[in-house]
Write a structure and sequence with these properties.
Elements (H helix, E strand, L loop, with lengths): L1 H19 L2 H11 L5 H7 L7 H15 L3 H15 L2 H4 L4
Helix pairs in contact: 2-5, 3-4
Amino acid sequence: MKLLMVLMLVALPLHCYADSGCKLLEDVVEKTINSDISIPQYKELLQDFVDSDAAAEAMGKFKQCFLSQSHRTLKNFGLMMHTMYDSIWCNIKSN
């Protein structure tokens, strides 16, 4: 499970680097760390990105990892992600 979380977090910034902008990334992260969004709501909001039952199950477990965290941890995670968005690495576009 931890490996899945690491892989998802590594893949998300690559979406930004791929010259597609960061709005989608920011929206997904905000939905992920928002403790007011339940697992069924999360799956429904992101259903366009799920192509199998296994992926849906993994997405639910991923969201549960964040639901299990304290408000302070979620706030710090959001701050870390925004720091990444504002970094030069997220602003560099490939030639």
